[in-house]
Amino acid sequence: QVQLVESGGGLVQAGGSLRVSCAASGRAFNTYGMGWFRQAPGKEREFVAAITWIGGRTYYADSVKGRFTISRDNAKNTVYLQMNSLKPEDTAVYYCAADLRGLGSPARYDYGYWGQGTQVTVSS
């Protein structure tokens, strides 16, 4: 069983930065592919970023490319999402997810474990 707990959300002005974290349980964290997704009110949950197990390759949605950075610290069983140049349209609940196959997929159905989410609000 894998448990994921997000933290670090909050309120920030447009143009500002925020870093959200996701702490994972499980001894094999370094073998998980990890992803970040977000869901705004009335919208579908959408892919934001992912990082693979092997090689730590990263993938980003076009809407966040160049502004967001996903990273992982396997010693701390934690994955991070650094968000810079935030825009009001980035406002959403941000969820981390784990894929035990180690892939960095943009598809929700590839992830078997999800955190409870953390709210990020960007004011204009």
In words, what does this structure look like?
- The N and C termini lie far apart (40 Å).
- This protein is an all-beta fold.
- It is built from no helices and 11 strands.
- The chain is globular, with a radius of gyration of 13 Å.
What is the averaged pLDDT score? 94
Give the overall shape.
Answer: globular
Radius of gyration: 13 Å
Low-confidence stretches: none
State the major sheet. 7 strands, mixed
| Helix fraction bin | under 10%
Q: How far is the N terminus from the C terminus?
A: 40 Å
Percentage of β-strand residues: over 45%
Q: How many strand segments?
A: 11
Question: Structural class per helix/strand content?
Answer: mainly beta
Order of helices and strands: EEEEEEEEEEE
Helix count equals 0
Keywords:
four-stranded antiparallel sheet, mainly beta, seven-stranded mixed sheet, globular
Question: How would you concisely characterize the structure shown here?
Answer:
This protein is mostly beta strands and 124 residues long. Helices cover 0% and strands 48% of the residues.
